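Postdoc handover notes: sequence design on the structure in folder B. Input tokens:
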């Protein structure tokens, strides 16, 4: 009879070891679930503190788009205002967003056939329902990252780089994006993978992401960083869409530069460089509004408007019976 071998304990991923409880879901006073994650808080002067370990690598997903847009401007992209905000967006696919993507492409002498992002239906439920009702289906221009991809193509045209293969990490544009990510985050890029839309995704840390947003928010007007910050803070609908959490958050805090990302990521910065980045370990976006409110209140940026914009009820038969509550 063989003797069982020793039991090997499972390896704990660093991102799990770095996490702490961020928020609880309460239903009539009973805790129903707990969201774990990591928060990095950047203060003027460069000090970064964290809940959990802010120096563990993670994938920032679409929260990195404003940094990618800085690289595009450095390559010669000629966009500002709403269309530059759209280049930073994970948009809802509402008609205005789709029209804006087409405007970016037309301005560069391109069309929808040049897009190489993943075909999809609009991210916004109402917009997706309208597409289905019209008998249409998924397409690249409707996908929530199409503004970024259109802007990447336009940047290639401006720089004289080939548009074919623009998603390849070895393409000059993506090499510039990687360099810009490392520069603004202050963290060497150790992980490169593929995002949901097909573009390269560069890993960083929550401390690095918070640092990058602080740099954007405090940049001088007219610089690439300052232009991105001005567009994102002035055009929150173009960054998200109607009733999107990131749009509500930015609208409630004057001067805020904010961007969310898939798998429970959010980064934001105030004009003086107070900034933060959050990653939720289970990938849920549900706790992000209340965690953002707690951090902003700790930074002295609380308000009634912020409380109203970030309220997250727990429903019972359609009626609030509890709430998501931050533990920070």
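Designed sequence:
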């Amino acid at each position: 009879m063989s003797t069982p071998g020793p039991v090997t304990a499972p390896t704990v991923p660093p991102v799990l070891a770095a996490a702490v409880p961020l928020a609880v879901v309460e239903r009539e006073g009973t805790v129903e679930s707990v969201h774990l994650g990591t928060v990095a808080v950047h203060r003027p002067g460069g000090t970064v503190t964290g809940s959990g370990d802010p120096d563990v690598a993670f994938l920032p997903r679409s929260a990195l788009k404003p940094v990618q847009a800085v690289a595009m401007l450095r390559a010669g992209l000629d966009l500002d205002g709403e269309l530059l905000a759209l280049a930073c967006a994970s948009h809802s696919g509402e008609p205005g967003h789709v029209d804006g993507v087409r405007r970016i492409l037309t301005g560069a002498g391109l069309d929808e056939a040049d897009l190489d992002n993943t075909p999809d239906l609009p991210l916004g439920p109402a917009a997706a329902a309208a597409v289905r009702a019209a008998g249409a289906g998924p397409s690249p221009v409707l996908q929530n990252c199409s503004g970024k991809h259109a802007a990447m193509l336009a940047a290639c045209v401006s720089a004289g780089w080939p548009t074919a293969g623009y998603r390849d990490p070895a393409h000059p544009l993506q090499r510039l994006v990687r360099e810009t990510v490392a520069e603004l985050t202050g963290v060497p890029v150790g992980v490169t993978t593929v995002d949901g839309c097909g573009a390269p995704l560069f890993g960083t840390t929550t401390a690095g992401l918070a640092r990058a947003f602080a740099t954007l928010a405090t940049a001088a007007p007219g610089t690439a960083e300052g232009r991105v910050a001005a567009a994102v803070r002035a055009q929150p609908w173009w960054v998200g869409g109607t009733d999107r959490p990131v749009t509500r958050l930015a609208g409630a805090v004057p001067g805020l530069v904010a961007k969310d990302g898939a798998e429970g990521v959010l980064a934001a910065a105030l004009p003086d460089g107070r900034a933060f980045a959050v990653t939720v370990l289970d990938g849920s976006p549900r706790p992000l509004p209340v965690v953002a409110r707690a951090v902003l209140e700790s930074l002295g940026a609380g308000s009634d408007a912020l409380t109203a914009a970030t309220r997250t009820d727990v429903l019972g038969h359609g009626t609030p019976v509890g709430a998501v509550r931050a533990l920070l």
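Context for whoever picks this up: The first strand starts at residue 20 and ends at 27. Don't rerun without checking with the PI first.
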